[in-house]
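Hey,
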Amino acid sequence: MMPIHPETWVSYTFAILAGFAFGFVLERAGFGSTRKLAAQFYLRDMTVLKVMFTAIVTAMLGLVALRTAGLVDFDAIYVNPTSMPPQVVGGLIFGAGFVIGGYCPGTSLVAAVTGKLDAMAFVAGAGAGILGFAGVYGKIEHFAKSGANQRILLTDWLHLSFGVVALLVTLLAFAMFAGAELIERKLRGRGAPTEKDSENFDDAHASPAE
């Protein structure tokens, strides 16, 4: 067996710790609850938008700062190639699963770790889907690889510098946060119940023994 380079151990250790930290943050943000996650689709609770957009902007600004300081070679960072047709279809399947099951892959693992049976079933279903995709890949490989199939960034598409794109995305984030707050205020009290409403309902209908 070939010895593992010390830098590889450091990378693995950092990846594991970062994964635990990310899962902890998701759980503390309430993303282990299908009620909170599903409320996003009813525009009653925009926490998912706020937390994920914050994570995106934070990572983006960090990369821009490190790139400007010469500490990161952005061209050496792997970015999934852009292939619109299969990615649009995949996004629609992903969104349908999110709405129906109430979880995305990451939040399902967070909820499963806390012992929620529905999340465990969701994780099992995701695993079955992965195996099913692998089984039929040979028949859909042409479609899966269709489209541009190359790395296309916003900087390339808009023909702007990294700094300008980072500024525009940050301003977009602030606008989205303001819009989310406005939507929550206007739609609160209507539509599907929020997580807090559901908990109050459960408490009100609990048996005396409970």
